Amino acid sequence: MSIDFRYLIPEPIFNELIELSKQGHADDDKIVAGWIYADRKENFGIVKGYEVTKDPAKSHEKPKSWMRMKKRKLYQMRKLKDEDNIDIVWQFHTHPDSKEELHDMDLQILNYLSTGVMIVITPDNVLGWYFDKRETKKPIIDKMVFEIINE
């Protein structure tokens, strides 16, 4: 990801996502997952919405089939981009334990995918992690900081 690329999120969406994580924390540290949609402009992406896709889970779960997980993710992302005319689609999940860093299961998933973005939502913050190990043995992991904007 370019260092000049900015990630913008409207304050109401930021607050809703933070609330999802807080609810999970209050409800026995349950994890919520889904998709975040954004429009791409010249040098920034602006979040336009999100969709929760799974019932809250007790913990990160190892996929039953890594290949099926990857195929489902790619299919869903293409479908959203093509059918709903969405520029950027990111997967998100909450970390109700407030840990902003990637958990071991997050790293295992990204390692399997070789490249991708994982958005982590804590009770205090929304941030992304860009992961790429296609051309290096050691993966490149860059933090994506979302700037809150007023609409």
Question: Any overview of this molecule?
Answer:
This protein has a single domain (6-149), classed as 3-Layer(aba) Sandwich (Cytidine Deaminase, domain 2), CATH 3.40.140.10. 29% of the residues lie in helices and 35% in strands. It contains three helices and seven strands, in the order E-H-E-E-H-E-H-E-E-E. Strands 1-3-2-4-5-6-7 form a seven-stranded mixed barrel. The protein is globular.
Quick structural gist:
By secondary structure, this protein is α/β, with parallel strands linked by helices. The chain is 29% helix and 35% strand.
The CATH class label is Alpha Beta
Instruction: State mean pLDDT (0 to 100 scale).
Output: 86
Low-confidence stretches: none
| CATH hierarchy: architecture | 3-Layer(aba) Sandwich
Q: Give the number of helices.
A: 3
Please summarize the sheet with the most strands.
7 strands, mixed, barrel
Radius of gyration: 15 Å
Estimated helix fraction: 25-40%
Structural class: alpha/beta
How many strand units? 7
What order do the helices and strands follow?
Answer: EHEEHEHEEE
Order of strands across the widest beta sheet?
1-3-2-4-5-6-7
N-to-C CA distance: 25 Å
Characterize the overall form: globular
Q: For this structure, what is the CATH homologous superfamily? A: Cytidine Deaminase, domain 2
- Number of discrete domains: 1
User: What percent of residues are in strands?
Assistant: 35-45%
